[in-house]
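Q: What would this chain look like folded?
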Amino acid sequence: MNVRLEYSMTWTAAIWFDSRLQMNNYTIKLGMVTNSSLQQDHSVSLARVNHFVYHELANTTFIHHDNTAQMQVLSQAVSKLPPCQKIQLIKS
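A: My prediction, written as structure tokens:
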């Protein structure tokens, strides 16, 4: 049975763009359809998304991977995102 979940998230992060550091607030409204009717699976999937957003994206600085000199200057706040996102499916 498919279950539709909706979840809103807001976080702050910086971006190094055009030789300037800008702070931005990001908001997404996430819509997911699960392949399971088990509440535990829904909780796990939302916890994983929550962890990624609030522990990897929030309070960090986005910068182009070619800008290595500026990365060293901002090294304590730089996160490198993979070139393509992979989706992990949970099956019961």
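The first helix runs from residue 39 to 57.
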